[in-house]
Amino acid sequence: MSSVLIRDCRGPEEYPRLVAIWRTAVDATHDFLTVTDREEIEAQLAAAYFPQVRLSIAELDGQVAGFAGTAGEGLEMLFVDAPAHGRGVGSALLEHVVSTQGVRTVDVNEQNPGATKFYTRRGFAVMGRSETDDAGRPYPLLHLALSGLRPAPRVVRRGEGIPLLFVHGNGIDHRLLLDLDDVFDDGGWERLYLDLPGFGGTPALAGDGDLPALADWLDAAAGELTGGRPFAVVGNSLGGLLARELAARRPEQVLGLALLAPVVDPDHSRRTVPEQTVLRRDEELLRSLRPGEALKYQEMAVVQSRENWERFRTAALPGLKTADSRAIDRLAERYFLDPAPDARLGGYAKPVLIVAGRQDHVVGFEDQQSLAGRFPDARYAALDEAGHNVHLDQPEAVRDLLREWVARIRP
């Protein structure tokens, strides 16, 4: 792989090359500029703009391939030669000016979403917006700032011993899995129930907040919470996908996986799922509930009963009510991991449990059986009269399976 060298600009003799780079970059990314505005800006680069900033040059294979201009804490410009896009030049320039020149802010044209994504993936967050650019032209600007802060997880801790991390799904919080705590309360496990960013008590991620960013956050949080010790993971729904991502990143550290109604393929159109089915309805119960709560309950309940509702009300409803809708929307914008964790888990031979509900219309049960076949030491169970909240619909059966799974784990 080619390496990127960053150096200071040598002076006006390099300006023609920088103008040429600006031109190719703008042609590739700034199609919203009028011809007149583009020509006016280009004419001012060497004459007015370059002399006002500190210029850093990026060389790729000995050729000038990009540049950045800074003033104080502001990044005033960063452009990469179009043929060099995707080769790490922009990332190297940004890392350089942040780490050596104290850059903390940047303005981005709102009509250039690729640039916004570039910066937000690297820790910048949108802090404001202007209707026009600095010259009053009709090109809105987004004002970004480097937060440098990763939201700390809100964690409920129970017990002492080997760390056991619980990862919930999308749109809920840790309370959905807290219902299972009695399974592990006398087995030498330190149970760590965390809220993912944007859910429960953990603030949403700055920037994109998509699934890759969520996976990075969880990986860092898991490392800090476990202190590098071996640990096991219980993951539900999306948490089941994230649990496999943790195992793919930390195969020696993750002692085992228990996956409850796990997402196998994030793309719902590729899942094998049954039609939504209600095996037993309880109209009297539904009439007694508030309309909004009844609707949320009906979305998941396969066997409606007062007892089942009480489990849902305690474990699921609080998280559903407090979820950050903006975090859910940002997560949906890039709801996949590339490469997928399962492609990187070959040879993971530690104890795996996969539990599915036969009436689960969200992720199904057949894909989960296929997933189980990928692991040498996996146990699979598809429980009848159970939907996506399989451990709420069949609490005792799931508890028995978890006890058997945890007994197989050896640090």
What does this entry look like structurally?
With 411 residues, the chain is α/β, with parallel strands linked by helices. The protein contains 15 helices and 14 strands. The strands form 2 sheets. A 7-stranded mixed β-sheet has the order 1-2-3-4-5-7-6. The radius of gyration is 26 Å and the shape is elongated.
CA-atom Rg in angstroms: 26 Å
How helix-rich are the residues, as a percent range? 25-40%
> What is the total tally of β strands?
14
Distance between the termini: 38 Å
Helix-and-strand structural type: alpha/beta
* SSE order: EHHEEEHEHEEEEHEHEHEHHHHHEHEHH
User: How does the overall form come out from the CA principal axes?
Assistant: elongated
| Strand line-up of the largest beta sheet | 1-2-3-4-5-7-6
* Poorly predicted spans: none
Q: Total number of helical segments?
A: 15
Largest sheet: 7 strands, mixed
Based on the model shown, name its key terms.
elongated, 411 residues, 7-stranded mixed beta sheet, single chain
Q: What's the gist of this structure?
A:
With 411 residues, this protein is an alpha/beta fold.
List the helices and strands and how they pair.
Layout: E1 4-8, H1 15-29, H2 35-49, E2 54-60, E3 63-71, E4 74-80, H3 89-101, E5 105-109, H4 113-120, E6 124-130, E7 141-146, E8 155-158, E9 162-167, H5 175-178, E10 189-194, H6 211-226, E11 231-236, H7 238-249, E12 254-260, H8 283-288, H9 291-300, H10 306-315, H11 317-322, H12 325-333, E13 352-357, H13 366-372, E14 378-383, H14 390-393, H15 395-408
Parallel strand pairs: 4-5, 9-10, 9-11, 11-12, 12-13, 13-14
Antiparallel strand pairs: 1-2, 2-3, 3-4, 5-7, 6-7, 8-10
Helix pairs in contact: 6-7
